[in-house]
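User: I'm new to structure prediction. If I give you an amino acid sequence, what do you actually give back? Let's try with this one:
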Amino acid sequence: MYVVVAGGGKVGANSTRTLLEMGHEVTMIEQRSDRFAILEEEFGPVVMRGDATEISVLERAGIARPPELLLAVTGDDEDNLVISQIGKEGYGVPKAIARVNDPRNQTHFALLGITQTVCATTNILGLVEHEVPEHGLVRLLELQREGLDIVEVQIEGGSPAVGTRVAGLRLPEGSRLISVFRHGRTELVEPGTVMRPGDQVLAVVTDDAAPALRKTLLGAAKG
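Assistant: Good question. You get back a string of structure tokens that encode the predicted 3D arrangement of the chain. For your 223 residues, that looks like this:
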């Protein structure tokens, strides 16, 4: 597989190193001269110097082949967005993954069709939420293109869903219970599955239906 990595910081360098170890062909682009010198010493001709937002630089990196994968992982969200758009819309790159440094910019990427993104801040906050859930629903995965979230719900002893079969739950439109983890085992949810205290339920839900799903499974949020 041929991969173009735009950005030679820690993310870009580690990604390039791993991809090379896996036997893939990689070209990494780095703009800063000081960082380029260090990267060139390690990676040799794999790394080239230039501004990856410039078409001429991307073309020298082989964007017109096109690569099977484009990683836009600079420290600037605007640059990552531009690089991803050029690759996908201008050269037909089948898959572009962009780094989002500020989670507030996530919407801009989605609106412009860059749905495969990685945001360290969002991931860390997700782990924090998993340990200390404030609203009962923990978002594990966001499917931006489909407008769906995969969430985890911890059923407590006082939850209104306890003792109720799934078929009898008034689940909001656009939601579905997938599996339940109990007694160290994961079971697929069936219409006859009965909710029990301590169950960890995996569900898929649309963004706007999440509050209603929470209310059905856990009751009204406490003020």
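You can read the tokens as a compact description of the fold. Here is one thing that stands out. Residues 130-134 have pLDDT under 50 and may be disordered.
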